[in-house]
Amino acid sequence: MNILTATADGSFTLYNETIGEHYHSKHGALQESKHVFIEAGLKKAFTDFPEQSINILEVGFGTGLNYILSRSFAESVQRDFNYTGIEAFPLALAELQSTQYQQYVAQPIWNKFEQDYQQAITHPADPSSPQYLQIAHTTLQEFTSSFKYDLIYFDAFSVQHQPELWSDEIITRVCTFLKPGGIFVTYAITGKLKRALKSCGMEIEKLPGAPGKREMLRARKLI
Questions:
Q1: What's this model's pTM, rounded to 2 decimal places?
Q2: Residue 188 and residue 158: Cα distance in Å, rounded?
Q3: Phi-psi sector, 184: left (phi>0), alpha (psi -120 to 50), beta
Q4: Is the pLDDT of residue 130 over 70?
């Protein structure tokens, strides 16, 4: 069961009783998503790949907050992206609506998200279609793709609650989905994570963290 919970910045998140963790930071769901994934991730990717539509992979699609904020920012700067989320346990549409995230984006963006969500879960996207949303209803361990992505949002539950998603093996697997020059961004930073990424040919950056966290991590694939 998921329980709607207020966070410190006034935005809501869901508490997953099975996992024992919130989908977003209790210090501010909206603040965290903007700080980690938009400011440190998407803006950097648009700067580094200025002449193209970019391909984004999110590990842990969850409530869709990172997606709608990404879509909102992309439209504000007149850029395109294609988006694939990995989510083993997709939320019901009513749960997404309960978060009230529609107040943070233009109404047409939210309406389109509601229209596309179920289709995105149940049917593979056509990679030739512009600005598609696809949600791979599978685990990260079983996810496969012939695509190479420009940007990865790694937004899995924490290592304390899902340590298997932070193992060296999984991090190595995730890095295979990045193209050379591609960006990996996550809210977490540990010595183990840094070592795993470096062993995959990634260049590591430590950045100031979102409220409640001192630091976060961004990495670039060099080879």
A1: 0.96
A2: 8
A3: beta
A4: no
